[in-house]
Every structure is written in structure tokens, then in C-alpha cells.
Amino acid sequence: xxxxxxxxxxxxxxxxxxxxxxxxxxxxxxxxxxxxxxxxxxxxxxxxxxxxxxxxxxxxxxxxxxxxxxxxxxxxxxxxxxxxxxxxxxxxxxxxxxxxxxxxxxxxxxxxxxxxxxxxxxxxxxxxxxxxxxxxxxxxxxxxxxxxxxxxxxxxxxxxxxxxxxxxxxxxxxxxxxxxxxxxxxxxxxxxxxxxxxxxxxxxxxxxxxxxxxxxxxxxxxxxxxxxxxxxxxxxxxxxxxxxxxxxxxxxxxxxxxxxxxxxxxxxxxxxxxxxxxxxxxxxxxxxxxxxxxxxxxxxxxxxxxxxxxxxxxxxxxxxxxxxxxxxxxxxxxxxxxxxxxxxxxxxxxxxxxxxxxxxxxxxxxxxxxxxxxxxxxxxxxxxxxxxxxxxxxxxxxxxxxxxxxxxxxxxxxxxxxxxxxxxxx
Length: 426
Known about the structure:
About 40% of the residues lie in helices and about 20% in strands.
């Protein structure tokens, strides 16, 4: 069977998942979680095989490791997804067009999602759990560095699904770049492509498919320490993102500091960052305050380091900070530290990003931390879902109208009967 034929089969089988009850899908999720524990030895062996490859970059290795801690986290995530409300068939709008002539809009699965993601095996489990809960078929392609781990995880999931009432025809794991090319041309069978990876890769996907694409290409996030910041708070928040997970897309790449507090704050935060092993790239004012900083060079403001490296840039005002963010950022997640409520509100209105925070770490930009249970990624798009994409971001809708022989002719012309257009409770 060709890849196109297999994808078409996923499309047909996804209808079975979409028509299943919430109880059936929750039972399947529970079975998947148990299967991961039962198959743990095989998964560990597969992960060790991936990790044995030579010259794995540190950022990739940190994502590639599938430890017991990550296993337990994804199993907990599966449980949390199962406890999310059932969105299939949820009434979103109800309107009376005329007496006993009621229009409704309900939530329905998208159909089949094509997901291409980085070498991060725990992402595979998160994606699958959301696909099950939302009733969507899923075609997966993970980073080649995690090939053996992904295969072991997919085999475990499919074994668990095979025993369920919905079967396992709704999931397909791709293994090669050539198969990704086939997926990108599977119009009619795949309803949405979600790519996670480099800017180059996401741009490639967008150029080579006519299927709708949802996702973000990079995580160039900022933290602005304003003239009205609590500097102790600012230091703690600035140091939080990089050391906890430098390869995360929601870790800041540039720390913007208002000139009025630069001389007191930058040496303070630089000391705290260096203690955590963070390398500082600075503009002229930063380098004067922190002599061992690496001088800024062209391109640094738009660079996603994915490592223990960070830019520090001094700005003269809130307006300059917002302009810098909107110019060099990737519209992912940006934050401000300020004690001035009005300034925080201005920042949240003026920064054109999916997530805009006040007085907290950018690392809170995450589906689990948002209470979504899990996420398939973070979208910087303004169409469909934006920010962390959880269950609701994998749903579409349809309009339902049931009448009693009503005719458009009745509501047109000189003696047209008027519509009532009365909004009804859900």
C-alpha cells in the first residue's frame, strides 16, 4: 500500500473515531497510558539506540531523552486530557430564525491532522492524546533523530488502540522525508498541517502544500524590564527561562532593559545569569557594564539560540521596547516587568504576539500550564488557533438547521415574512 493510500485509509477510519462516544475515547486514552507502562522496556531500548548516535547537539539531546520523568509526565498529561470536556457536538451558537425554526452551530473534529515535529518523543504522546480526545485522525512524522523511540511509542499506542472499540486505523507514523512530501500533497485526505521546527522547515512546508498550515517557525521571545520594574522580581524572572530549558521555544532570546535602570540592573542580572552558565551577547552599553559580554553583531536580535545564550539590549522607552519586539520577535511570547499597571496594559495591547505577559516568566506559554491538558504546538498564526494549541484548536464547526418546509420565497419580496433572529441560550 502506498503512503497516499495509507493516508486515505486514515481519513476513512478517522470518521469512526469522530463518531465515538466520549467514554470510548477516554477508555482508549487510559489504555494508551497503561500500554506505555507495559511497553516501557522496549521504549527505553529504542531511546538508547537514538541517543547512541554520534555528535547530537546539546539542544537536540535534551529534547530527545525520554526518561521515566518524561514518561510519567506524558501519562499524567493523558489523564488530564481525558478529563477535559468533550467538545464534539458542543453547541456554540443557537439562534431562532422564526418560530420553531432553530439554527445551531456545533463543534466538530477537523478530520485528519498532519503533524511534523522535532526530535521530541514526549510530543508524540501529547499530540496523539489530543487527537484521540478531539476525534481527529493523525499522520505523524517526528525528527529523524528520534526515529526508533517514535516507532516504539507508535507501536505501543497502536497495540493499545487495536483492542479498543475504535481500532487503530486513525493513526499513521511516517518515517522518511520522502513520505512527508507525499503528506504535503494529500489534499482532500489531510485537513490541517501542523509543522514544528526551524523557520526554514516551516517555510518549506508552506511553499509545498495547499493544505492549511498552522504553527510557528521560531521562538524569539523577549522580556522587557521597564523603568518602573521591581528589579528583584525582574532578576528572578529574567533568569528563569534559559536555565530551566534553554532549548524551549518559550525561553527568552533577548532581555530588553530600560536605560534608566540599566546601570543598576544589568550587572545584577548578568551575575545571576553567569552563575547558571548563560553566555551574554550585549550591545555597547551592556558590554560597558558587563565587560566579558560578547559584543552584538548583525543578526543577533533575530537569532534563536536554543542554548544557554542570551542577548541584552538597552532601550530608551516602552515604545522603543515594543517596536523592537514587533520588529525582531517571532510573535510567540513576550513579557514586561513593571509596577505600573497602565504600562503593563499598554504593553499587552501594543505587542503583536500570541502570548503577552506582565510580571511573569515567558515559560508559562505552554498548553499544560494554561490548563489545556497538552498541546500540539504554539501557533503564531492569526487564523484559526493562536498561542498554545490544545483541544479547542483541533476543532472546526458546522451549522445545523431543521425546519418544517420553510421556503426562502416566504422571507423575500414585497410581503416578506421577517426573520426573528432571536439569540437563544446554549
